[in-house]
Amino acid sequence: MSHITQAKRIVVKVGTSTLTYENGKPNLRRIEALCKVLSDLQNSGREVVLVTSGAIGVGMGKLGLRERPAETERKQAVAAVGQCELMFIYDKFFDEYNQNVAQVLLSSDVLNNQATRKNVENTFRELLEMGIIPVVNENDTVAVDELVGAKIGDNDTLSAVVAILTSADLLVILTDIDGLYDANPKASADARRIPYVAEITPEVRALAGGAGTSRGTGGMFTKVSAAAMANEKGIPCCVMSGATPANLYRLFDGEQIGTIFGTK
Does the annotation flag 221 for ligand binding? Predict the structure, then answer.
């Protein structure tokens, strides 16, 4: 566990289902708890990057929409409303713990261009050197399925990309389940959590079936895929429940929690 407890630069990804209630409204108590823990980790000497989902989900809640929009233009509009609200909430809570944050919106057309990708890397480097917590999201206002080549696909993948861009020591994905199981825990009472995955094989990927919620786009499959991307660059990944953000302390204290991919 030393590669976890000694990790200095960490990328933490939080999903829509963790950030919002079923009605799409932001779960302020949980977001505040997350901001408090990440601020404390930053104070302890670690460098924190937050990758957040939730722009469309929060936008849906603010606009009173029950279903995720299907139309391109509607997605763009809802994401624009939600991103504004989401950053307002993060800025307010992080400011209460004396942390400065910066919004970073990314799309694959930026990351696939050598010059602009280098600019992104430089921006992350400067923000971290200045002690600022980057808050990263995909630019959903312009990056949608119909814009060919402009969409990363999901924020699990984005979090792995950001971990690689920032040369992170650890990627943590907070979700609505406490790790990878050997069977579907919602369907089988005998399902058991797998604490460590040294190598992501086809068999491991087969265990990660399932889609995301009505408010999000991810599922365990995208999380395992993100872990594989990070592992290829030597970055371990922990997938764990985001219901209690203070459990991050337990992770960095060396307790076994969630599923850790790519042990060294």
Answer: yes
User: Is residue 124 annotated as involved in ligand binding?
Assistant: no
223 labelled as ligand-binding? yes
Q: How many CB atoms lie within 10 A of CB 67?
A: 9
Q: What is the mean pLDDT of each run of 10 residues along the chain (264 residues)?
A: 91 93 89 98 98 91 88 90 95 98 91 92 98 92 48 81 97 94 85 94 86 48 95 97 97 96 78
Phi, psi of 185 (to 5 degrees): -65, -20
- Residue 218 φ then ψ, to 5°: -90, -170
* 87 among annotated binding-site residues: no
| CA angle in degrees (0–180, nearest 5) for 93-156-227 | 120
Amino acid 245 reads P
Model pTM score: 0.91
Superfamily per CATH, domain 2-261: Acetylglutamate kinase-like (3.40.1160.10)
118 is in an annotated binding site: no
Contacts of 66 (CB under 8 A, 6+ apart): 24, 60
Calculate the alpha carbon distances from 68 to 22, 59, 78 in Å. 12, 10, 9
